[in-house]
Amino acid sequence: MKIRTTVAIVGAGPAGLLLGHLLAASGIDFVIIEARSREYILSRIRAGVLEESSVDVLASLGLDGRLREHGLVHDGIYLQYEGTRHHVDFSELIGRTVTVYGQQQVVNDLMLAHDEAGSAVYFGSSDVLPWGIETPRPSVNFVHGGQSYSVDADFVIGADGFHGVCRSIIPSGAITSYQREYPFAWLGILADVPPSTDELIYALHPEGFAMHSMRSPSVSRLYLQVEPDDDIAQWSDERIWEGLHERLGVEGWTLREGEITEKSITPMRSFVASTLNHGALFLVGDAGHIVPPTGAKGLNAAISDVAMLGAALSSYYAGDAGSLAGYSGRALSRQWKTQYFSRWMTEMLHTTGTGAEAQSRYRGQIGQLDYVTGSRFALQGLAEQYTGLPIDGI
Ligand code: PHB
User: Fold this and answer.
1) Angstrom distance (rounded) from CA 3 to CA 36
2) Is residue 44 classed exposed, middle or buried when 0-12, 13-18 and 19+ CB atoms within 10 A define those classes?
3) Where residue 39 falls among pLDDT bands split at 50, 70, 90?
4) Is the pTM of this model over 0.85?
5) Which CATH class is domain 2-73+99-178+270-344?
6) Alpha-carbon distance 183 to 267, whole Å?
7) Residue 393 pLDDT > 90, yes or no?
């Protein structure tokens, strides 16, 4: 079956779904094609912190109803090392905040709004293949419900994640990947227990990084640094809590335990594509870049890409093509700053190596943390980046 639309979006994660809403607000037609089922996408546990600018983007579309009701506004974070917890008060330092609200909840809100609008979203599609991106009439082929479809569009948007098909169809001579693997991973758990802290705790400990986050007043999210090849089967609930108590413990504070409802290990990598645009194809979110999760930038970077691209497409159809031509450069410029911040946070807070070199590195990290927590300038820099840099061009 042939379908004609204006923008064909591949991927119904937060980036693709949000772009659909931005386009709809400008009266631009779109179709979203997604290989996974709706249930699968809603079941993926991902990040949980929204920058102030991400909240603003959702609010500008009236998609912030549940977010305002259930999101937890946080004034800052704690940085912890050598048994001491230091409060970094973003509100006081720069007058900005972040909102703790799970990616799953964001995705759920976006899906419900698409249901209400009657948007064309094809979940559970197979054989998804964009083609003709070097022509003015690109198309996306896919099979849905046993029927073959071909969507003709002006533009194809790759919102299909790091492993998605869209980036892979850019000719290899036209794109370079900048990649970096880290020698550690995160073991993450969800536990049915009220958070033991009012704000997120990022802790450096000689045994490795640990973090206390949350999803709601009754659900905690906690992380432990583990080996990249660690096997989750080796981590009993008891061993996980033991590690969390050891690494997060400070005098006079107790970590509450609860039933662990989910646990998994995520590798950590940095990746940036050299371009987010080839012909009629534009990449957004994880399809174009990945950051390690320290600092919670992945979802926010996807939102900022989409905000920039949505504005550029809107200008394009209002007769100004310049903004769209500059999308890749603007998004990558912000992304490289995000890469820098995520790497800085990651390397400041994770342990690596063995023996004398590891000890020297650890002492250096303490020096770095002493400097950061003791300097208002450094704290303001952290606060500025954590709460989110401006989104250019929106
Ligand atoms: C989370 O809640 O999953 C989370 C929060 C902050 C981070 C990373 C992950 O830096």
Assistant:
1) 21
2) exposed
3) very high
4) yes
5) alpha beta
6) 9
7) no
Ligand 1 atom, smallest distance to 294 CA:
10
- How many residues belong to the chain? 394
Tokens of 204: 């450096």
Asked whether this chain's domains 2-73+99-178+270-344 and 182-269+352-386 adopt the same fold, the reply is no
Known catalytic residues are 74, 202, 293, 297, 386
Question: Any idea where the domains of the chain sit in the sequence?
Answer: 2-73+99-178+270-344, 182-269+352-386
Does residue 308 have its Cβ closer than 6 Å to ligand 1? no
Query: If you write DSSP's letter for every residue of 131-180 in order, what string do you get?
Result: E-TTSSS-EEEEEETTEEEEEE-SEEEE-S-TT-HHHHTS-GGG--EEEE
Q: Is 246 a residue whose pLDDT tops 90?
A: yes
Domain 182-269+352-386 has CATH 1.10.150.130: no
- Order the strands of the 219-226 sheet from edge to edge: 84-89, 76-81, 201-203, 210-216, 219-226, 177-192, 259-273, 289-290
- Cβ of 221 closer than 6 Å to ligand 1, yes or no, is yes
Query: String of b and e for 329-364 (b: at least 16 CB within 10 Å)?
Result: ebbbebbeebbebbbbbbbbbbbeeeeeeeeeebee
> Is the per-residue pLDDT at 394 higher than 90?
no
The residue whose CB lies within 8 Å of the most ligand 1 atoms, and thus the one to mutate among 79, 101, 204, 211, is 211
Q: How many CA atoms lie within 13 A of 217 on its CB side?
A: 5
- Count the neighbouring beta carbons within 10 Å of the beta carbon of residue 290: 23
* Ligand 1 geometric centre to CA of 215 (Å): 10
Regarding the beta carbon of 98 and ligand 1, being less than 6 Å apart is answered no
The answer to whether 201 touches 77, Cβ cutoff 8 Å, is yes
Give yes or no for a contact between 119 and 20, defined as CB atoms under 8 angstroms apart: yes
Phi first, then psi: what are they for 210, rounded to 5°?
-145, 155
